[in-house]
Amino acid sequence: MGINRAAKISIDLAALQHNFQQVKKYLPNSKIMPVIKANAYGHGMLQVARSLADADGFAVAQLAEAIFLREQGIEKPISVFQGFLNQAQLQLSIQYHLRPAISQLWQLDLLQAEQQNTPLDIWLKINTGMGRLGIQADDVDHCYQRLEKISYIKQSGLMMHFANADNPQNASNQQQIDCFQAILNKNKTTTSVSNSGAIISHLFEQQDWARPGIMLYGSSPIPGQSAQSLNLKPVMCLQAELIAVNQLKKGQHVGYGATWTCPEDMPVGIVNIGYADGYPRHAPTDTPLAVNGQLTRLTGRVSMDSVAVDLRGINAQCGDRVELWGKQVSVDEVASCAGTISYELLCNSGNSAII
Ligand SMILES: Cc1ncc(COP(=O)(O)O)c(C=O)c1O
Q1: Which of 37, 41, 217, 343 is catalytic?
Q2: Is the CA virtual torsion 8, 9, 13, 19 positive or negative?
């Protein structure tokens, strides 16, 4: 049994589907595997998978996420970015018809050690410049030679991930493309390259499978370009309730550290959401939010279970609905105020809504 805290998450599946159709417009000839790892960035992995009926497959980070989807009846291809970490996990990957990404040479050793008749498709994930998980470009030929000898492996596609897709002007993007293209020229196979930033910036058009994440959830992957300008609709709405309206005097402080002082006699509201609910503690005074549909701002520090808001000029009373982000308040704007990215806010709040 879980304890529901006061903060409420609502998910607009029609907006999710709308955003998926935007992805299709960018890459009409590619298959799309929505990235639904980390509980679909906090949006609920299963409901997202079920509602994206036009998706060609899905991508998750870890094996357990993929097995969960299979056990809940998701039958489409599922790619697993971290692949398998040992022989037992390889066997589960095969048993559940998953498509693991191979990014380490020792994973090839495990593939070779396995005696199997059941076919397996894999991705060879190449380090073209991300420097995270990936086979070094120099090792790829050797990997393909080894893979060809493993009879149960049917398809070994090539996958890469951009380090700077959020900055289309960054020279490293072209360097990564050149590195990937050189490997592809020698090994003609299926490809998967683009995340949201790369899709929107048209960094790499010809690919079999694209891997959008954040744009599906209605947030912009490119700083300076709003989600609205990209015709992306917010999917998550994070709400709480006004639980106090305090009439404070000029000079009175608000919150831990007394970081904010009332410049005049004024109403300050208290909202029952805090960093325990995934609202960012680093959101400073002036971070936007909406009380009963009226835009206002945070004052003072975010507490564990509450935040304070400036209610000057706002028609507000206890019980009013407060939107922390959603249709009125952009999660991108809140993230930028808090010095982080929407990904973190969506994951943290979505995954801490129910305990
Ligand atoms: C390998 C890989 N591909 C695609 C994505 C999706 O990225 P985005 O959410 O920026 O579209 C991610 C997300 O982190 C990833 O790790």
Answers
A1: 37
A2: positive
Does the CB atom of residue 214 touch ligand 1 within 6 A? Answer: yes
pLDDT band with cut points at 50, 70 and 90 for residue 355 = very low
Write down the pLDDT at residue 352.
Answer: 79
Is the C-beta atom of 213 inside 6 A of ligand 1? yes
Nearest to 341 by CA among 350, 332, 353: 332
Residue in 160, 161, 232, 341 to alter for ligand 1 test, most ligand atoms within 8 A of Cβ: 161
Annotated catalytic residue 249: no
Q: pLDDT, tens digit, for every residue of 328-344?
A: 999 999 999 999 999 99
**What span, in angstroms and rounded, lies between the C-alpha atoms of 173 and 195?**
12
By percentage, how much of the chain surpasses pLDDT 90? 96
Predicted pLDDT of residue 353: 67
Q: For ligand 1, what atom is nearest to the CA of residue 215? A: 11
Q: What pTM was estimated for this model as a whole?
A: 0.96
Distance CA(60)–CA(242), nearest Å, equals 37
- Containing 37, the helix (H) or strand (E) segment is helix 37-42
Q: Give the Cα separation of 131 and 125 in Å (integer).
A: 11
Per residue in 25-43, pLDDT tens?
A: 999 999 999 999 999 999 9
Residue 37 among the catalytic residues = yes
Taking the CA atoms of 241, 305, 238 and 64 in sequence, report the sign of the dihedral they define: negative
Summarised one tens digit per residue, pLDDT across range 217-251 is: 999 999 999 999 999 999 999 999 999 999 999 99
Atom of ligand 1 nearest to the CA of 166: 10
Q: How far is the CA of 197 from the centre of ligand 1 (A)?
A: 9
Q: Which of 76, 154, 256, 327 is catalytic?
A: 256
Ligand 1: which atom is nearest the Cα of residue 212?
A: 11
Taken in order 21, 25, 73, 36, is the CA torsion positive or negative? negative
- Delineate the domains of the chain, giving CATH numbers in brackets: 13-219 (3.20.20.10), 236-352 (2.40.37.10)
Contact in structure between 44 and 350 (CB atoms under 8 Å): yes
